[in-house]
Input
Amino acid sequence: MRGDDQMTGKREIFGTDGVRGLANAGAMTPDNILRLGMAVGRVFKNGAHRHRVVIGKDTRLSGYMIEPALTAGFAASGMDVFLLGPLPTPAMAMLTRSMRADLGVMISASHNPYHDNGVKFFGPDGFKLSDETELEIERLMKDGPETGLAASEDLGRVKRIDDAGARYIEFAKAAFPRRISLDGMRIVIDCANGAGYKVAPTVLWELGAEVRAIGVEPNGFNINRGVGSTATKKLQDAVKEYRADVGVALDGDADRVIICDENGRLIDGDQILALIGASWKASGALKGAGVVSTVMANLGLEKFLAGEGLALKRTAVGDRYVVEEMRNSGMNIGGEPSGHVILSDYATTGDGLITALQVLAVVAAEGKNISDACRKFDPFPQLLNNVRYRDSDPLESESVSAAIKAGEKKLGAKGRLVIRKSGTEPLIRVMGEAENADVLKSVIDDICAAVEKAV
Output
């Protein structure tokens, strides 16, 4: 199976999750960010009302460079700008709607290192932009966004909002069932030195938990460094050291989550989807008789859901495609193995904190340990290797295609392959699953070797 992050293959600046790259280079220089802001402002100005855009960011040093460049671009296009400071990506999606903004912006490169940064956009409905809208923005940037800018008297105004974090805290708490409390539960929360470092521990404490917070000392350079959902050892060690009931790891912009049980073992997005899906089916809250995930979801999840009488609908990699399928299919649960989970009853994008709260609600209601409640299935052995490339596309090579076909034949009906290009890095991702781990390793090694030779 071939997975394609880009879908249309036409966008040049936008990837699977907005614009992203090395800070102060390429698309992420102040000049390009200014032009991006002007172009986006033109696209989202419609009507005679005062247009407004809300901007949040994570804790990267480069945010101090990107935020004013975007602000200048939006003000030049005639949009009023509201600066909300460090906040999770899902908070920006929520506040875009709550504050009746025409546009929401999050400055973040999610789980990437500090030297990268990016810009994510949300429409007035809180959903990420369509491919068509992104293409229109790129066209305006190429054609020269200076045309059609606001007259001097119509320039946008800029204002800083101080209570945005408090608004999101109350929103998140409202997503937790009133009949349940976290009293007596000991939780370690790892905020990745990122956007959730203030709000996430506060929400858990105000809901009654005993909270031990790590990854809450951002300095502009340490976001995701040895902490967070992509580096979980500190969380696992802390859970065991403090004899916690559960560990919760967010990523840099807090739109994804990984759970750690009381024994220090990790619970990924597939297990979270299984847990919430089964719970919501039992309570009657599940919509659409199934769950949406991507081509990367484990076959074990698919088998578990089938046993529950539920379907698993797969999409290309990227939460935007998961959300699109959820909306098309009328489903209210979707996500990815990385812990990017969308619960559309509460949010329009992945929300690591709200997802964690739903897991904790199920566990608290059942009165079980995390390890017992959250292990819904035994995953198939899965192997993922990344091969870096430069200019030419290795997937167009005949030798690579032949290696993929040979691997598919070798796995047969007892396994599957997903070979795709990353949407955020110059990598070929080679993933496979099979009942037999040795056979799987042999197949993956052969395909990776073919890709490396084609580079």
User: Anything to note?
Assistant: Residues 253 and 269 are 17 Å apart (CA to CA). The domain at 183-254 is CATH 3.40.120.10 (Alpha-D-Glucose-1,6-Bisphosphate; Chain A, domain 3). The two ends are 20 Å apart (CA to CA). The chain has four domains: 2-164, 183-254, 267-374, 382-454.
